[in-house]
User: Fold this.
Amino acid sequence: MRLAINNGRIIDPSQNLDKVTNLYISRGRIVGISDEIPEGFTADQEIDATGKWILPGLVDLQARLGDPGNNYAGNIASETKAAVAGGVTSLCCPPDTSPVNDSQAVTELIQRRARQAATAFVMPIGALTQGLQGELLSGMYSLQQAGCVALSQANQPIQNPLTLKNALEYAVSHDLVVMLRCEDKKLKNNGVAHSGPVSSRLGLPAIPPSAETTALARDLLLVEEAGIRAHFSQLSCARSVEMIADAKKRGLPVTCDVAIHQLHLSEMDVLGFNSLFHVTPPLRSMQDKEALRMGLKTGVIDAVVSDHTPLEKDDKLLPFGESKPGISGLETLLPLLLKLVHENQLDLMTAVRSVTQTPASILGRNIGSLDKSNSADLCIVDPNATWTLEADKMQSEGKNSPFIGWEFTGMVEQTLFQGRPVYRNNPV
Assistant:
């Protein structure tokens, strides 16, 4: 199958490319980006992309797919459909599956189900410790051999510094990518909302910023001592951004990401006790939100993730503090980024880079790029289409999004994975 996509505005940060031209695909791979047809190329099909953007398929470093196990709504088949509806063609699933992804068998099961779905490229993340218990190290090397692209503790950070030190020293000897989410369990103290005027007013157990920053300070020291390349996941505080900026200035090989909802929401959104706004880490202050935006703009924050957590309806019908934390975020990752661009909070190239080139380089994978001979994973976006997020039109089995009812400008019209159309938007 040979496909020509004509007259689209191709935006590819990995090649510093932003121009209106044609893109050619043959046998699932990109064979050229040019105004001239490659030699010997005859298109079986043509797409007129006049007025549209062509972006590399997005790379999401954190998306739960509900498989294996029953902790979440949906499964790999349903959630990869949600991914491609949002233009995401490569995604990492954290190890907090059921059973936990701490063995080759679970890793291989995830990959097998992803191959059966054949909708997007699913990259498993292995557990750093057995059962995510934070005590005994997992077989990290065997997890890497089975296909895990990184190791993490998901939302259950290691509390014992000696265990973490041992994990980092083992990981560095095998050049493994380690993703760390920083949280001190004792300081969190079963809290559910940011420690500030809103949690005080609502009487909700509070999580101080120090629950994140003290753990981050500890982890940065251990990372420096081990000499490992580490990625810090889901920052939520202004102070955390400062600490990462300082570590980078000192030459530490660290990267970090932020969940997209942290760039749009704050503790003020919790005022209505609406459990759709219950996330972990919690929505912080307005100042924290602005600092996170600035961190992304200045390059301190490298990537943006959906932190997709599809939940059953009942999980969010409970009172705020008892509800499960999480947002179904795959379908709103790109629209919310484009919203920041429309509000002049971010330039378009930086926005696209944060979900393509940078996450790909963090993983050391040849994805998130429209370079010649790469797999033809891309999305075609209508930048002027306005639409409203409606629960019954979401592809994900989890409808738990606080952005339902929001109006967006910029819509994914079509997504290609390995040169095949895996999503077409058919507005009624």
Summary: The CA atoms of residues 83 and 330 lie 5 Å apart. Residues 210-226 form the longest helix (17 residues). The first strand starts at residue 2 and ends at 12. The radius of gyration is 21 Å.
